[in-house]
C-alpha cells in the first residue's frame, strides 16, 4: 500500500561480521556462517520504512544474518535481488505499483538460488498456498514475533521450511462477527420476503441443481404434481416428467455449455390425472457466467393444449366437410335415431343400400359392446343437449368389418324451433375416396347440415365479394339475418380502418392468386361490437376452372385470444420479477464481497502498526544498550508513525459508525477557510516531508461549518492524494453562488473510469489492496451533513488527473 513518507530508496548495507549471535528469549545462540566465513545475506522489501527498520535491526541483533539491501515495492525487490544475489528475501505482499505476488516470478528468474519468505499483514490459507505455488519458501503473518521470523529464516536457509504457525486471534474478530451478523440479518430479511413470494405463488416454482435434483419446491408445484411439496425435495425432476426426462437432460446440458438465459420444455407430468405443463428453466450464474443452479417455473397448460387440440380437430373436420364432402357419409335421423335418408357416401362407407337401412336404428353401425352400453343413444342425448356431438371411434360395416370413423351429429330444428331430427356425418378415415355422384346426391342433405351448424359462420361470396349465402352459424356470430345481409359486400364485417386500407379486397386477391387466404384479426358484428376471428377464405372454381366465387369460414376465437394475451402478460411480469430478483441477489453478493474486503484490509492496516509498536518496544527494552542513537531514534519514529496510523484508522471507523447510526453531532459556526486549509496542508506535510502541497484560497471566504469535521474532510482528501496520486497536490477555493468550492487535485493520472461510479461508496478500495475504503465515504457524508456535497470531476486539459470537489455553504 502506497503511504505518505515511504522510503522508496534502494539501500545497500555494508557486510559486517557480528561475531556471536544474540540470545532471544528461549532461542539458543547460533551463527549461520558460510564456509567462506560470511553470514547469510538478506534483502528486506516492505513499503513501510518502520517495518524495514525493525526487521533490519532485529536481524542485526540476532548476529545470524547480514541485511545487504532494502526496498519498498516489487520492482525494488527484483533490482536488489539481481544486484546482491542474496541468500534470503523477506518481502511483503501488498505494496504499490508491483506487489509481492506479482514480483515473485521476476525475483526467482533473476536469482533462482534466493529463498523468498513472504512477511505480510494479510492472513489466510489461500494466500499462503498461492505464495508457495509461485515459488515462495515460507509464508509468515506480521502478527508473529520477530524471534519466530529469525527462526523461520534459519529453517529456510538450512533447507527446512515448516508451515507457518497460526496467527493469534485478533481483537478485530469480534468486530467482524458483529458486522457479519448485521449484514446477515439484512440478507435473511430479503430471503424471507423471497420465500414468501416463492411459497405463495400461483405458478409452480422450484430450484434445481445442475443435475436436475429439486432443492426447493413451492405449494403450487406440489399441487400440480399431486404430491406434498415438502416430499419433492431431493427428487429428480426428470422422474416427474412422465417419461420425458431426456428433455430435461438436454436442457441442463445446454445451460451448462451455452450462454442461454431461458429454456422452455413442454411435457407431461406424473400424477393421478394426465397433465400437460410448460417448464421454464432459467440458470442463475456467478460473476464468471458459470451456472450455479436453475430456477424452474411450471405452468399447467393442459386446458390450453386441450382447447388447441380440439380446435385443430374441429377445423380439420370442418375443412374436410366443406372442401372434400365426397369423403363423408351424410344422412338424416328422426328424433328417435331411425335412419330417414341415405346417400351414396353412406352406402359406400357402410355397405347398406337405402332400402336396407332406412327405417332402422342407427345403432346398427356400432359394435355389440357399444350397443350394449347405450353409447348411440348417449350420442343423440349429447347432441340434443349441446347442439352437436363429435367423436372418433370404431364403426361396423354391413359385412361385419370395422373402420375408424370421424363422426359429427348435429341437432336439426325447423323454422318454428321444433326438433325434427339429426344430421349425421361420418367419414371413413381409413379410405378418403368418395365419388362425385355421391356428392351430388347428398347436396340437399349437405345444405341442411350446413344450416344446422352453429359454431362456424359459413357463407359464399360472388367473385366481387358480395354475400350470396348465409347459415345459422353466420347469423349467430355476426348478428345479421339472411335477408339483411345477402347481396351486401363482405367488407361490412371489417373495422373502418381496414375498409379504408382495402384489406377485404386484398384478402380476395390473395385467395384468388394462392387458392386460399387465412388470418386472425378483429371483425365487427351488426351491433358494432368487435370479436377476434379466425378466418379462412377459399377460391371456388367450377369444373372448367372458372372462378365462381369464394367460400368464407369465420370462427369467433375471442375467448382464446384474450386468454393468450393474459398469459403473455403474466409471463412478462414473471420474467421482470425474476430479473429484479437476480439483480437483488447480485447486489447482496457485491455487498458481502465489499464487506469481506473491508475486514481483510482493516486487519492488514491494524497488523502493520501493531507489529511495529510491539516489535520496536521489544527491541528497545531488550537491546537499548546495543543500539546506536540513530537506530533508537528510527525505532521511536516508527512507533510514533504507527501509533498515529492506528489513531487515524480508529477515528475513521468511529466516524463511519456514527454516520451510520445518525449519531454524529455537528457544531456549525462561521469558519475562515484559508487558515483551516493551511493548517491541513501543514499537517499532511509532516507525514510526507518530501511532497509538495499548495493552497490558493481568498482570505475573506468564511463558511458555515463544523471546523473540526471540515478539517477532517480536507485531511482525508489530502491523505488520499498523497497516497494514491502524485506530487504536487493543489488545493484551490472558489465561490459559486452561496457555496464555497474546495478542489483538491494532484499530478497523477486520475481515477479510472470503471471505479468512478463507486468512488464514494462504503468500503470502496478499487482493485488495489490498501486502505479501509472509508476515507472518501466519510468525506462525502460529512460534506452532506453540513449542507454541501463531495464529487469527483472528470479529467480536463487543465486538470489531466481530475479533481475532488467539496462544496460548503457560505456563512
UniProtKB/TrEMBL annotation:
Q: What is this protein called?
A: histidine kinase
> Where in this chain does the record put each Histidine kinase domain?
601-811
- Any idea which GO molecular function terms this record carries? histidine phosphotransfer kinase activity; phosphorelay sensor kinase activity
Q: What is its EC number?
A: 2.7.13.3
Listed GO CC annotations? plasma membrane
The chain positions of domain Response regulatory read 41-157
Identify the keywords attached in UniProt to this record, alphabetized.
Coiled coil, Kinase, Phosphoprotein, Transferase, Two-component regulatory system
Identify the species of origin.
Answer: Aeromicrobium yanjiei
Amino acid at each position: 500500500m502506497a503511504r505518505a513518507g515511504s522510503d522508496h530508496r534502494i539501500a545497500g548495507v555494508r557486510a559486517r561480521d557480528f561475531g556471536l549471535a544474540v540470545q532471544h528469549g528461549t532461542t539458543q545462540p547460533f551463527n549461520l556462517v558460510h564456509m567462506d566465513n560470511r553470514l547469510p545475506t538478506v534483502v528486506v522489501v516492505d513499503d513501510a520504512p518502520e517495518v524495514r527498520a525493525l526487521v533490519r535491526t532485529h536481524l542485526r541483533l540476532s548476529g545470524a544474518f547480514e541485511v545487504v539491501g532494502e526496498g519498498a515495492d516489487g520492482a525494488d525487490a527484483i533490482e536488489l535481488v539481481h544486484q546482491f544475489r542474496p541468500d534470503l528475501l523477506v518481502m511483503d505482499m501488498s505494496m504499490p505499483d508491483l506487489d509481492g505476488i506479482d514480483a515473485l516470478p521476476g525475483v526467482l528468474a533473476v536469482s533462482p538460488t534466493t529463498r523468498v519468505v513472504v512477511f505480510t499483514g494479510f492472513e489466510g490459507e489461500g494466500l499462503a498456498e498461492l505464495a508457495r505455488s509461485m515459488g515462495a519458501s515460507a509464508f509468515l503473518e506480521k502478527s508473529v514475533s520477530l524471534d519466530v521470523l529469525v527462526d523461520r529464516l534459519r529453517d529456510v536457509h538450512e533447507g527446512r521450511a515448516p508451515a507457518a504457525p497460526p496467527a493469534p486471534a485478533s481483537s478485530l474478530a469480534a468486530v467482524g462477527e458483529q458486522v457479519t451478523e448485521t449484514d446477515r440479518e439484512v440478507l435473511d430479511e430479503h430471503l424471507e420476503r423471497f420465500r414468501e413470494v416463492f411459497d405463495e405463488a400461483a405458478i409452480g416454482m422450484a430450484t434445481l441443481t445442475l443435475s436436475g435434483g429439486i432443492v426447493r419446491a413451492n405449494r403450487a408445484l406440489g399441487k400440480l404434481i399431486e404430491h406434498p411439496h415438502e416430499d419433492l425435495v431431493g427428487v429428480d425432476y426428470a422422474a416427474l416428467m412422465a417419461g420425458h426426462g431426456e428433455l430435461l437432460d438436454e436442457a441442463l446440458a445446454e445451460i451448462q455449455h451455452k450462454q442461454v438465459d431461458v429454456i422452455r420444455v413442454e411435457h407431461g407430468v406424473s400424477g393421478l390425472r394426465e397433465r400437460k405443463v410448460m417448464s421454464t428453466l432459467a440458470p442463475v450464474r456467478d460473476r464468471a457466467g458459470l451456472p450455479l443452479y436453475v430456477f424452474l417455473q411450471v405452468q399447467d397448460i393442459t386446458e390450453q393444449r386441450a382447447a388447441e387440440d380440439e380446435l385443430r380437430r374441429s377445423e380439420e373436420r370442418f375443412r374436410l366437410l366443406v372442401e372434400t364432402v365426397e369423403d363423408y357419409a351424410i344422412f338424416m335421423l328422426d328424433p328417435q335415431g331411425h335412419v330417414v335418408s341415405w346417400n351414396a357416401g353412406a352406402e359406400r362407407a357402410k355397405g347398406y343400400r337405402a332400402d336396407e337401412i332406412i327405417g332402422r336404428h342407427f345403432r346398427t353401425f356400432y359394435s355389440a359392446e357399444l350397443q350394449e352400453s347405450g353409447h348411440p343413444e348417449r350420442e343423440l342425448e349429447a347432441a340434443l343437449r349441446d347442439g352437436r356431438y363429435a367423436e372418433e371411434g370404431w364403426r361396423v360395416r354391413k359385412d361385419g368389418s370395422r373402420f375408424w370413423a370421424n363422426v359429427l351429429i348435429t341437432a336439426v330444428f325447423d323454422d318454428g324451433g321444433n326438433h325434427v331430427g339429426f344430421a349425421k356425418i361420418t367419414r371413413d378415415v381409413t379410405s378418403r375416396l368418395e365419388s362425385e355422384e355421391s356428392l351430388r346426391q347428398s347436396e340437399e342433405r349437405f345444405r341442411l347440415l350446413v344450416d344446422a351448424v352453429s359454431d362456424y359462420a359459413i357463407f359464399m361470396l360472388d367473385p366481387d365479394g358480395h354475400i350470396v349465402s348465409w347459415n345459422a352459424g353466420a347469423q349467430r356470430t355476426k348478428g345479421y339475418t339472411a335477408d339483411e345481409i345477402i347481396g351486401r359486400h363482405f367488407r361490412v364485417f371489417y373495422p373502418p380502418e381496414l375498409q379504408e386500407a382495402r384489406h377485404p379486397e386484398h384478402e380476395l386477391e390473395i385467395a384468388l392468386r394462392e387458392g386460399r387466404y387465412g388470418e386472425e384479426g378483429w371483425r365487427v358484428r351488426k351491433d358494432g361490437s368487435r370479436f377476434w376471428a379466425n378466418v379462412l377464405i377459399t377460391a371456388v372454381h367450377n369444373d372448367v376452372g372458372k372462378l365462381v366465387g369464394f367460400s368464407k369460414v369465420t370462427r369467433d376465437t375471442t375467448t382464446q385470444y384474450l386468454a393468450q394475451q393474459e398469459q403473455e402478460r403474466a409471463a412478462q411480469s414473471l420474467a421482470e420479477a425474476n430479473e429484479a430478483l437476480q439483480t437483488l441477489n447480485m447486489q447482496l453478493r457485491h455487498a458481502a464481497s465489499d464487506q469481506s474486503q473491508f475486514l481483510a484490509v482493516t486487519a492488514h492496516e491494524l497488523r502493520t502498526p501493531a507489529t511495529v509498536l510491539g516489535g520496536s518496544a521489544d527491541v528497545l527494552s531488550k537491546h537499548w544498550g546495543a543500539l546506536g542513537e540513530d537506530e533508537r531514534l528510527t525505532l521511536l519514529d516508527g512507533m510514533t508513525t504507527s501509533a498515529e496510523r492506528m489513531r487515524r484508522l480508529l477515528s475513521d471507523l468511529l466516524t463511519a459508525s456514527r454516520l451510520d447510526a445518525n449519531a454524529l453531532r455537528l457544531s456549525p459556526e462561521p469558519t475562515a477557510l484559508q487558515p483551516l486549509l493551511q493548517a491541513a496542508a501543514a499537517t499532511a506535510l509532516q507525514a510526507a516531508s518530501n511532497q509538495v502541497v499548495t493552497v490558493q484560497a481568498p482570505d475573506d471566504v468564511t463558511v458555515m461549518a463544523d471546523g473540526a469535521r471540515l478539517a477532517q474532510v480536507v485531511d482525508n482528501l489530502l491523505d488520499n492524494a498523497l497516497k494514491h496520486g502524485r506530487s504536487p497536490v493543489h488545493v484551490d477555493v472558489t465561490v459559486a453562488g452561496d457555496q464555497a468550492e474546495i478542489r483538491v487535485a494532484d499530478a497523477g493520472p486520475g481515477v479510472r473510469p470503471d471505479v468512478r461510479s463507486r468512488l464514494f461508496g462504503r468500503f470502496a478500495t478499487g482493485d488495489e489492496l490498501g486502505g479501509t475504503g472509508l476515507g472518501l465515504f466519510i468525506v462525502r457524508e460529512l460534506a452532506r451533513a453540513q449542507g454541501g456535497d463531495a464529487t469527483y470531476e472528470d479529467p480536463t486539459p487543465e486538470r489531466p488527473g481530475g479533481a475532488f470537489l467539496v462544496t460548503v455553504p457560505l456563512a
